[in-house]
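Amino Acid Chain and Its Fold in Token Form
===========================================
Scope: a single protein chain, as residues and as a discrete description of its fold.
Amino acid sequence: labelled as such and written in the usual single-letter residue code.
Position: the record begins directly beneath this header, with no further notes in between.
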Amino acid sequence: MKSRSVAPALLLVLAGAVAGCTSATSRYDAQLKKVDPARIYVCHGFDCYLKTRLDITAADARRFSQIMASGAASPQAERAAISKAVQYFETRAGEAIGVRDEPKSSFGKSGEKGQMDCIDESTNTRSLLRYLAKRGLLKYHTVESNVSRGLFIDGRYPHSTAVIQEKGGVKWAVDSWYAPMGGAPDIIPLSDWLPRGVLSSGALN
């Protein structure tokens, strides 16, 4: 796949075959800008092929408030709270869909209910982050556009992540693709996340 003789058109086909994980900000930004405080539409089936409505109940709203209140002391504490909020959100998303997503992506799962590639995961995480921001629950961070890395010819699979930025400071990847549904996402500096990921086995996250 690294050969310079591979035609550009073929590379685009190959890139599109990897679980839809090729779009930097994803084509769902318009959807994300309309986050309703009472519901979130959860993407699944790869490349947001399917959507399931998750109604945010009063109990959910209280739980998110409690989780984020635990991160009020510092940016680092808020990132820890964001991790817990993502875990709670994914558990609720699994309940709404009725299927538990497996970690990472499998080529054979495209179009399958409940299974998520990195476009689904990063879109869903950003939807949650925007929900938290709209409710005033993010004190130290802003929600940024999703970011991608890798395009085969550089020896890496395409992959996308949600991003937050510490106010006046570092951007952080919030990447929930590697963990099982409801597991803790990777929250690492975006500058560390961007160069990671290779085609060989044992690849870095």
Q: What stands out?
A: The longest strand covers residues 141-149. The helical segments are 8-17, 29-32, 58-69, 75-97, 118-134, 190-193. The chain has a mean pLDDT of 83. The chain has one domain: 8-193.
